[in-house]
Amino acid sequence: MIAVAATYYFFFGKGEKEQTLIIAVPEEIESTDIQQVSWENIVHDAIFQPLVRFDMDCKTIVPDLAVRYEVSGKNLTFYLPEGVKFSSGNPITADIIKRSIERYRRLSIYAEDYAVVEDIVVVNDYTITLVCKEPPAYLWAVLTTIYGAPVDVKTAEKIGDEAFGLKAVGSGPFKVVKWVQGSHIEFERNDNYKTNLPFVKNHGPPKIKKLVVRFIPEDLTRISELEAGKVHIVIGVPTEAIKRLEKNPDIKLYYTLTPGIDYIMINCKRAPLNDVNVRKAISLAINRSELVKALEDTAVPYFSLLSPTQICYNETLEKYYEKVYSYNPQKASKILESLGWKDTDGDGILDKDGKPFTVTLLVPVDRPVLRKVAPLIQAQLSKIGIKVELQEFEYRYIRDKTRNWDFDLALRAYVWSDPDILFYIFHSVENYTWSDPEVDELLEEARTIMDMTERTEVYSRIQTKILDDCAVVPLFVTKSYIAARKEVKGLIVHPMYGELFLNDVELSG
Amino acid sequence: MYNSLIKYIVKKALLGIPTILLVSLLLFLIMHSIPGDPIKLIAGERVDPSRVEELRRIWGLDKPLYIQYFYWLVRLLQGDFGVSIVTKQKVSYLILSRLPYTIELTLTSLLISYLIGVPTGIIASLSRGSKLDFALMSMVAFFMSLPNYWLGLMLMLLFGLYLGLLPISGYSGPESLILPVITLALRPIAMIARLVRSEMLEVLSEDYIRTAWAKGLPERLIIFRHALRNSLIPVVVMFFLDLPWLIGGSVVIETVFAWPGMGRLLYRSIIVQDYPVVQGIILIIGVLTVISNIIGDIVSAILDPRIRIGGGEGE
Fold it and tell me: Which residue among B36, B97, B257 places its CB closest to the CB of A221?
């Protein structure tokens, strides 16, 4: 009790408030060490810094910690600036980067990320080369995120991985002061921080001295703290709060499009869904605008497989499939009729050979967005005479069921900036209900194309194959919202993952 | 007489052991019958299947269930609650760092509820049938029917956001206690007030009270020494029965108010299926329940000697 009573936090104090930026997030992190987590958030962005990042256009790779990089065949070479240090003061050299990657391969559950890397060559103190088995196009998705950031391996070895998990050290803009479990993390500015990012003005240590990240699970509580001015920035704004916050003159909303889509998986092996025309009818019967409206415009209708914030996004392709699969229930009905589906008994459900057209739709209870649109999809399909039964499960259980082909229709979503995510769904080794030898080949090839234009071309061919066959039905791309108070000046929100860059942030008023 | 009390205590304590074992077994079985796979949860879309199997081995989830239970029990006896699947930290550390906050919240709530509930019950019983009694009891019924979660949010919006008088959430000193304590205490206040009222009414109609009145004893003495003392026994016992119940109730309150306690840890661990942590916390709550029940029994035995003489064989 005394320990509890003694724990007074400064973030409600008066004097320091002006210099302390307070950010609220819904979920408490698993660990501060990026190599020991399965998901990341602002905490890791504050502590760590990758060698390179994607520019605001989601296409160009620009230096962050590194000064520059080179691609030659299967090799990636990074040049480090001289004299850079972790927040602990330990120098960052090529050898340390190598040891950091080796630690990632030993500790992280994403160790396979580096499977393509055969050898890490320390050319000199400030030059490091990743020698790969093949040109590693998909490796950028790791290297440009916080997962690709070097950790201070010397400190980690000294204090051990468990202690490092509580107070990790990197070269990012802030360093951990204290993690109060169940409550918040306090940071202070990392005075050793330097960046080469082109899209920030301040390339040195951040202007704000202190940062507090609070973990507030309840949506309404988190938003109330923001409205009361006790929190400056909220990450993970619930869609129900958007309308209210838009009206609040003290608050500014930012949104980014998710790098990934929400879609319906179809069991292409099970009758009657094994007929491509039936699948097309389903896609035509879905009114995506109505779904998005039900989500209060916190998503945009979508028709192709790579969203605008994913690498290799193709706008022409999206426009084309928008025309092909735009809402047309009459056309959908005609297709089904031509296949022999008719409502002979007048119960509103199509039937053929005495069997009614009834399918189940698996709905993830733990994905609010998908759960919300499920009854609408049910209603839309019933309009063309398909009876849909909704079955609610947890998302990962649905994932298992779809892997075992034990489903008709299932609501799914994916998030990953690199189009290689399509490999994990559609390549025949993943055993989805649809596959194609040509797509297999293209997916393998696309992994190794370093030229962005060429790679986009190949992924467009892959998407064309999948979408023409209606192996899945894309629905929409969701928006992620970040709300900040007006006194937060200079905030940069990256379009790809909605990462916050606090480099130029100042608190006024 | 002293001897019989010790015997009673030992017997109660020994009976607690099989109860705790049963709790642990049930808990283990329930946790493992939940569909879904914690390893697949940790591992996202882009994790290699071979890595999944390796993780399963590392966490011992590939062994048969009864072996997993046995190992868990043996480790528990050594004070080892295991390691969180999600944060890789020791479960005992996670629980111990959170428990003080939860105890602070629940004990304060319980004390407040007695400080308010007991006088309310006494006043209501003494003015039985009057408008005051009716008003107090209606209020009590109203409080009892309010859902915790909703009440917490409403209090938070009113006092935290609109009036700006109290902190909305988090732990930043004693003032942070006010809203969660009120939310958590309202129900026990109502229950205690009702219990005190009905016990008082019962005792007040006893023969010995009538005798006391007949003897011409002062009213204060009759009510506080004779009536209250006897009617408080079940009320005191209820304190111990309520304690674990409140810790359970704090799960919702701690989540609403971002309180850094054990309840919130439990909530989150259930969501992410962090088996070791959930098991650890539920077990702690189970053990606390058994222990407070035993203490409750013992306290009532001390307060009322008839229990240990009469109840010796009858249970």
Answer: B257
Range of lowest pLDDT (A149-153, A408-412, B287-291): B287-291
CA distance A448 to A437: 18
Which residues lie closer than 8 Å to B207 by C-beta, 6 or more apart? Answer: none
Q: How close B233 gets to chain A, by Cα (Å)?
A: 28
Q: What is the pLDDT of residue A3?
A: 41
The percent of residues in chain B predicted with pLDDT above 70, rounded, is: 90
If you ran DSSP here, which 8-state letter would residue B90 be given?
A: B
Q: Crossing angle of helices B91-126/B131-145, nearest 10°? A: 160
Q: How far apart are the two ends of chain A, measured CA to CA in Å?
A: 37
- What does the alpha-carbon distance between residue A315 and residue A2 come to, in Å, rounded to a whole number? 61
How would you label B113-150 residue by residue, b for 16+ Cβ within 10 Å and e otherwise?
bbebbbebbbbbbbeeeeeebeebbeebeebeeeebee
| Nearest chain A residue (CA) to B165 | A228
Q: CA A191, CA A161: separation in Å to the nearest integer?
A: 24
Type of residue numbered B30: I
Residue A15, pLDDT score: 44
pLDDT tops 50 at residue A16:
no
Closest partner CB to B258 (pick from A4, A110, A218) = A218
Q: What are phi and psi of A447, to 5 degrees?
A: -60, -25
Are the C-beta atoms of residues B113 and B192 closer than 8 Å to each other?
yes
Q: What are phi and psi of A352, to 5 degrees?
A: -150, 130
Residues A44 and A500: their CA atoms lie apart, in Å, by 11
The residue in chain B having the minimum alpha-carbon distance to the alpha carbon of residue A105 is B51
What's the 3-state SS for A144-171? CCHHHCCCCHHHHHHHCHHHHHHCCCCC
- Given a cut of 80, is residue B58 above it in pLDDT? no
Contacts of B172 in chain A (CB under 8 A): 8-9, 11-12
Tens of pLDDT, residue by residue over A313-371, are: 999 999 999 999 999 999 999 999 999 999 888 888 999 988 999 999 999 988 889 99
Q: Search chain A and give the residue with CA nearest B260.
A: A182
Record the pTM. Answer: 0.83
